Backbone:
């Protein structure tokens, strides 16, 4: 099994790209207001594709339990619930769409991290614009499955990776491009037993122990 880690070898655009991204201040203000968070953004630029990726960090002064309480009450993240489709949309997606529309170059979010006082949720891109499109539904699943991935409310993982993918190699899990799988498997780090790593199956609502290797 392999879990994603940030790639620190990409070219950082720095201030030049920051200045060129029209509407970035408005985008950040929307996230901070609706998520009650402090937002930080880092840029990476792919010269081959001429595409600018954003790595977004949201930091909170409360725990995930409080955030999910706000979420289910519809007072966090600018969420709109659709009872008919059982899906959630967020001002995150709308604000990011407006940010893209204001610029003449391609912007996307490669990774978004939610840093709560008691855990972090790290969401990785699986296809173009997958994070702004699915962030509401990911948070909905984090709320619905909370009792299961916390081992019956007995232990909080200190990091949650969304997603990890089933690999073609027997008995392994790893990233697999081109497959939509935010709601299949998540990777969890626990403090006990020398940083125990487990895989959570959303379909089966079960935790599995796995061997871990990290890759850059």
Residues:
């Amino acid at each position: 099994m392999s879990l994603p880690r940030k790639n620190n070898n990409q070219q950082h655009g720095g201030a030049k790209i920051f200045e060129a991204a029209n509407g970035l201040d408005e985008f950040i203000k929307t996230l901070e207001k609706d998520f009650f968070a402090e937002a930080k953004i880092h840029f990476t630029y792919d010269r081959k594709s001429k595409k600018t990726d954003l790595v977004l960090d949201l930091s909170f002064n409360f725990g995930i339990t409080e955030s999910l309480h706000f979420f289910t009450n519809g007072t966090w993240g600018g969420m709109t619930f659709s009872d008919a489709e059982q899906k959630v949309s967020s001002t995150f997606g709308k604000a990011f769409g407006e940010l893209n529309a204001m610029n003449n170059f391609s912007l996307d979010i490669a990774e978004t991290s939610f840093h709560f006082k008691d855990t972090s949720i790290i969401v990785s891109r699986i296809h173009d614009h997958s994070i702004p499109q699915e962030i509401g539904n990911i948070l909905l699943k984090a709320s619905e499955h909370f009792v299961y991935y916390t081992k019956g409310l007995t232990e909080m993982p200190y990091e949650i990776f969304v997603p990890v993918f089933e690999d073609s190699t027997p008995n392994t899990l790893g990233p697999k491009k081109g497959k939509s799988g935010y709601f299949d498997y998540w990777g969890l780090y626990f403090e006990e037993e020398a940083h125990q790593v487990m895989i959570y199956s959303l379909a089966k609502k079960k935790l599995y122990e796995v061997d871990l290797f990290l890759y850059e």
Notes: The two ends are 14 Å apart (CA to CA). The longest strand covers residues 106-115. The first helix runs from residue 15 to 20. DSSP finds seven helices and twelve strands in the chain.
